[in-house]
User: Fold this.
Amino acid sequence: MKYEIKDRREKYCLFSAEADSFKGMVELALKRRISLFGADLSRVDLSGVNLSRADLRQADLSQTNLSGSNFYGANLSRADLAAADLSKANLYAADLSRANLANANLSKCDLSGSDLSGANLSGADVSDAEMLGAYLKDCVLSDPSAIRQWR
Assistant:
């Protein structure tokens, strides 16, 4: 079946390919090093996908299942991850500056060394998240005392 990744605003096609699933098509785009800058990847299942070093700046990943995915070194600056499931995801050294993570599930994920400057984490579940060396300047939190709970 043919799938397309569209731009989140203009809705033009960023990438299209024949694949068994939308997830398979995204994996193919990543293997080909296609930039997913501004892509609409909302409300889909991308659990377990290797998104390491992916260019996902300003992408819409809201309400997407990203549990167990690998975002090592990925650029998610200004991405919309509202209500996304990032449980057990590897976000080590990821750029999440100014990202919207409101109401996201970040439980048991690794955010060590990540840049969360200016990110919106209001209502996010950060239980058991690894945060060693994460940059949190101007980060918005519903409960700032939750930082003490992070490892």
